[in-house]
Write a structure and sequence with these properties.
- The complex is a heterodimer of chains A (735) and B (282).
- Chain A has 735 residues and is an alpha+beta fold.
- Chain A has four domains: 385 residues, no CATH class; 42 residues; 102 residues, 2-Layer Sandwich (Transcription Regulator spoIIAA), CATH 3.30.750; 185 residues, no CATH class.
- Helix content of chain A is 55%, strand content 12%.
- In chain A, the strands form three sheets. Chain A has an eight-stranded antiparallel β-sheet with strand order 7-8-9-10-14-13-11-12. A four-stranded mixed β-sheet of chain A has the order 3-4-5-6. In chain A, strands 1-2 form a two-stranded antiparallel sheet.
- In chain A, helix 20 links the parallel strand 4 and strand 5.
- In chain A, helix 3 packs across helix 4.
- Chain A starts with a helix and ends with a helix.
- Chain B has 282 residues and is of the alpha/beta class.
- Chain B has two domains: 118 residues, HUPs (Rossmann fold); 145 residues, HUPs (Rossmann fold), CATH 3.40.50.620.
- Helices cover 43% and strands 21% of the residues of chain B.
- Chain B has ten helices and ten strands.
- In chain B, helix 3 packs across helix 4.
- The longest helix of chain B is centred in the C-terminal third of the chain and has 27 residues.
- The chains are: A alpha+beta (735), B alpha/beta (282).
- Chains A and B meet through helix 12 and strand 3 of A and helix 6, strand 8 and helix 8 of B.
């Protein structure tokens, strides 16, 4: 009873935070929803309906915590085919049917479905979807609508469209193309600019705001009509009354056709894969380290899809980019998803006329960027680095998906992977796969002793086909435990498994556990095959011969002050995981490490990433780490600014320190244990912070993390930061 | 609890490269158990073959090995089964090479058939050796089954005779017994608690069995209990393999129907991939 009370209390305490992040997410969801629906040849409002129905139903019924649902990128290709062959009314029936199938998947606990596909094939499929989106929308972005039969033709025509766009003479078209190009530029460069006021509004919303502002500027300021050609404006945004009045009547004609059920199966397959992959990725970002109930989520998504199809909306899936923004904005529970839907309703109710002022090319630029991200060359280089055979799988899936269709494409990918596995393991005989396919080849038990760890041994082979067995066992281990995964009895481990195992390793380290993989070292010597396993074990980077000027300066600084300097990349960053700053971020590595003789103070450059997919940003910073030998209070201290005052409304409470009004006014202090924090900030420490420059200071209980700017520090700043850390350590230690 | 000791030991003799090693193992066991050894050969009797077998076993004369060579032609399975019944053989030793094709031929057909029909205990040797390799670690099943008590008792008896120091009793528990499907944090917590409870229950059941075994067999031995959640019959083989057990002792299968062949379980799993030497107790 008591516990229940506290969860209700928690819920209301975090409510402002969730409303706020729901609001920010709705800013992205609005343009993306409109754009994705239009890219699928559905009425633009269909995307918003999917997000609203999904947001409301999944937030109430779902089993995940901080995910956002709405129309997904992956479905654009399938919906396009479904709508063009079946017509929109029958396509709504197909959407509803796929919702029912999703519901069934949830009931039959098929949440493991996404694990049966090799990762290269999934990558190939996603890249194909990216190319479908990019190929079609690129032309609209440059105000050059064309109609082609085949996706590949759209891609081939891109140079011609660019050529045409350069030679436009119609003013309306020129302005439309400019809107598209500018919007694409905003998408491309937004993540490069680190300004916290600019970053408050997500890039897609900037595009919307700027283009609406542009339209008003002409209309109100210059008393001229909007110069962008009328056919390149978003059209057909009905008012809320009209949406309710014009509920589409589902058309059941032709539901017994082959193409109908093909579409239903493709919709179900893609939406479940996209949702499951997204849920898995978002679980890793969840700062509260909860585990999602995927089967329950599938049921909720299925039900929401049925509802959405009934009201004239698209499939509802869990989406990664919006979810990652949600996490970064501090969402703590499903209510954020609910409020995102609510804000979307408000937008449609109050601003439906303003939405008609958005130029089509601007919206399509967002999709072109999305498509590019799905099919970016980075994906291909990553495939290649895992192994050449991955590229074959990738391209077979990609080309067949583009040429024939999604389902054929993914089946071809699975078959290719399996055949390649047989070929590269032919020295074991073909029996390795066929004979051992059905064997329960995973053994797990808890070892006895003081330090009880879980021991997992896998026999024969472990690839995408039987990975679900390993997954079932690994999922049954609490993430704060120690796990030893032994592959020494395995003749073959494929890249899909190793990638997933690596995900588990990250998850366990984030949640205070430990995940060790053993028995793979022998593979390389025993068999001469290029397993991806080589890449799994973190190998030191190839020694760089040339240092940059900054590095040589740091080197000489290290010499002058008798510090140790290590410029190499260090992947061992687990000591940073317990800082709340990194709760929602993924640390890639640290480099340019400076440390004093006893190693208590370390200064390093760090590369970490925030967000996922199109909302992903890679950030590099310089940070100082002080390892204290004793316990102190956990807190976060930063400069009190405008944003902090705003977020105070969203439920973050600044802790005041008695008798130090100046400090309380100028600094923003956060932490859960107010008493011990108040005790920690005594006169000396408060005075130190008051009389020194501002830094972000964070304590995890026995170590401090200090950093200043949102970028790498200069040599001068490094010196200042190091000195600050040294003196701070003295002040705290003398306490 | 009465203990069935091995008074007569039979071995199927086939002229393979492993013949000498197999015979040596069988002879050593007969000496350990003070049992009579029957060499069963499927085929026509010939003085040459008999002399060869006798010359191989010459080195055991000093240990007073009592053995008899039996020749009979016919279907190998039928011959071995009928002779072992006639001679009242308690333990039948079958050599099996781990190498795939022979394993498939030998274990996959003959040994599996014999195991299904035999009324005596069976020892499958996969790594026979001419020089004695001490048997240090024995793994025995602790299934919830009426035969288990007999099996565990016999395992201690065998361990005593072979001077093994370590016995691990593996309790295989099917996943269905947990009754909780892990889906989120809450169900994971419940499943973990349920597992701990089942483990305690299983361990106390086995400890109860051990307490009934004569003290002279259980003293001076490291006894480990190892509850494992996994497929029956498969997990224990897997465990025997990773723990490098020298001998795996199993209950004899209760009943074999057509369905059991289609969906292999329990002992069938062990027979398809022998993890180590396996003793199947009747």
């Amino acid at each position: 009873m008591n516990q229940k009370k506290s969860t209700i209390k928690d819920f209301f305490q975090t409510l402002p935070k969730n409303i706020f992040s729901g609001f920010v997410v709705s800013l992205i969801a609005l343009p993306l929803g409109l754009g994705l629906a239009m890219a699928s040849d559905a009425p633009p409002i269909a995307g918003i309906i999917a997000a609203v129905i999904g947001g409301i139903m999944v937030s109430i019924l779902g089993g995940s915590h901080v995910t956002i649902v709405g129309p997904g990128n992956g479905l654009v290709g399938v919906l396009l085919v479904a709508i063009s062959t079946l017509g929109i009314e029958t396509a709504y029936v197909a959407i509803m049917c796929s919702g029912v199938l999703l519901l069934l998947l949830g009931f039959f606990r098929m949440g493991t479905l996404a694990d049966f596909f090799p990762s290269s094939a999934i990558q190939g499929m996603l890249a194909a979807i990216g190319l479908i989106i990019l190929g079609k929308q690129f032309h609209i972005m440059l105000a050059h609508k064309i109609n082609r039969a085949d996706t590949i033709d759209y891609l081939i025509d891109i140079p011609f469209t660019i050529n045409d766009a350069i030679h436009y003479e119609n003013k309306g078209l020129i302005f439309a193309a400019l809107a598209g190009i500018l919007s694409l530029a905003i998408m491309l460069f937004y993540s490069k600019i680190r300004n916290k006021y600019l970053q408050l509004i997500p890039a897609p919303m900037w595009i919307v705001i700027l283009s609406i502002g542009f339209s008003y500027y002409f209309e109100v300021g210059l008393h001229e009509p909007n110069p962008i050609a009328l056919e390149y404006m978003v059209s057909g945004i009905p008012s809320i009354q009209k949406i309710i009045a014009d509920l589409p009547t589902p058309n059941f004609n032709g539901i017994w056709s082959f193409s109908f059920w093909g579409s239903v199966i493709a919709l179900t397959l893609i939406s479940s894969i996209e949702s499951l992959l997204s849920i898995k990725a978002v679980d890793k970002l969840d700062p509260e380290k909860r585990r999602s109930n995927v089967n329950r989520d599938l049921k909720a998504l299925g039900l929401a899809t049925v509802g959405s199809g009934l009201l004239g909306g698209l499939n509802v899936v869990t989406v990664i980019a919006r979810s990652s923004v949600n996490v970064n904005q501090g969402a703590t529970n499903r209510s954020a998803n609910f409020f995102h839907a609510l804000f979307l309703v408000l937008f449609i109710v109050f601003f439906s006329t303003q939405i008609a002022r958005i130029p089509l090319p601007a919206l399509m630029a967002i999709l072109v960027y999305t498509g590019y991200k799905l099919a970016s060359p980075k994906v291909i280089t990553k495939m290649f680095s895992i192994g050449k055979e991955q590229l074959i799988i990738f391209f077979v899936t990609l080309i067949i998906t583009l040429k024939i269709g999604l389902i054929t494409g993914i089946i071809a990918g699975v078959l290719t992977t399996f055949i390649i596995h047989i070929i590269i393991n032919r020295h074991f005989g073909y029996g390795l796969f066929f004979r051992n396919l059905l064997k329960p080849n995973v053994l797990m038990y808890k070892e006895q002793g003081n330090k009880a760890n879980y021991y997992v041994s896998v026999k024969h082979f472990c690839s995408f086909i039987n990975y679900f067995r390993l997954k079932k066992h690994l999922d049954a281990i609490p993430e704060n435990q120690d796990v030893i995964l032994d592959f020494s009895l395995c003749n073959f481990v494929d890249d899909t498994v190793l990638e997933n195992v690596n995900n588990y390793r990250e998850l366990f380290t984030k949640r205070g556990g430990h995940f060790d993989v053993v028995g793979l070292d022998e593979h390389d010597t025993e068999t001469k095959h290029p397993f991806a396993s080589r890449r799994l074990l973190p190998i030191p980077n190839i020694i760089k011969n040339s240092l940059t000027r900054r590095q040589t300066s740091i080197e000489s600084l290290a010499k002058d002050y008798h510090l140790n300097y290590q410029f190499k990349r260090d992947k061992n960053v687990s000591f940073l995981n317990s800082f709340s700053f990194f709760g929602t971020k993924h640390i890639n590595h640290i480099y340019n490490k400076l440390s004093d003789k006893d190693g208590a103070i370390t200064l390093f450059d760090i590369e970490f990433s925030e967000g996922e997919f199109i909302a992903k940003e890679e950030i590099r910073k310089s940070m100082l780490y002080i390892d204290l030998q004793f316990e102190i209070a956990e807190f976060t201290l930063d400069k009190e600014g405008f944003l902090e005052k705003v977020s105070a409304f969203a439920g973050y409470k600044d802790i005041p320190i008695e008798n130090h009004d100046d400090f309380s006014n100028r600094f923003y202090l956060l932490g859960s244990n107010e008493v011990s924090i108040a005790e920690f900030f005594n006169d000396d420490i408060t005075h130190f912070f008051e009389s020194n420059p501002y830094y972000h200071v964070e304590s995890n209980g026995n170590a401090l993390l200090i950093f200043g700017k949102e970028r790498l520090a200069s040599i001068k700043e490094i010196k200042a930061l190091f000195d600050y850390g040294k003196r701070l350590k003295q002040v705290i230690s003398s306490k | 609890m009465s203990l069935k000791t091995f008074k007569s030991i039979g071995i199927g003799v086939a002229y393979s490269p492993n013949l000498k090693a197999n015979l040596f193992e069988a002879a050593r066991l007969s000496v350990f158990f003070k049992a009579k050894l029957f060499l069963i050969h499927v085929g026509d009797a010939s003085e040459k073959k008999r002399n060869m077998l006798i010359s191989i076993l010459k080195s055991f004369e000093k240990d007073h090995l009592n053995f008899e060579v039996v020749f009979r032609s016919g279907e190998p399975v039928d011959v071995i089964l009928s002779i072992s019944e006639e001679k009242k053989i308690d333990l039948l030793i079958l050599g099996a090479v781990r190498r795939e094709r022979i394993l498939k031929y030998y274990v996959g057909s003959i040994a599996r058939k014999i195991t299904r029909q035999s009324k005596c205990s069976i020892l499958l040797l996969i790594k026979p050796s001419i020089d004695r390799v001490p048997c240090q670690h024995i793994v025995v099943n602790g299934l919830k089954d009426p035969k288990t008590e007999q099996t565990i008792t016999a395992a201690f008896y065998v361990a005593e005779q072979l001077k093994s120091k370590k016995i691990t009793i593996v309790e295989e528990i099917e996943h269905d017994e947990i009754h909780v499907k892990v889906e989120d944090d809450k169900s994971l917590r419940r499943a973990t608690i349920a597992k701990e409870r089942i483990k305690l229950r299983e361990n106390s059941r086995i400890n109860d069995i051990i307490s009934h075994i004569p003290k002279e067999y259980t003293t001076n031995k490291v006894i480990k209990l190892r509850p494992i959640f996994g497929k029956r019959g498969y997990s224990i083989g897997h465990y025997a393999q990773i723990s490098r057990a020298d001998l795996l002792i199993m209950n004899a299968p209760t009943k074999m129907t057509f369905w059991d062949r289609l969906f292999p379980h329990d002992i069938e799993h062990i027979l398809t991939e022998l993890p180590t030497d396996v003793l199947i107790l009747q």
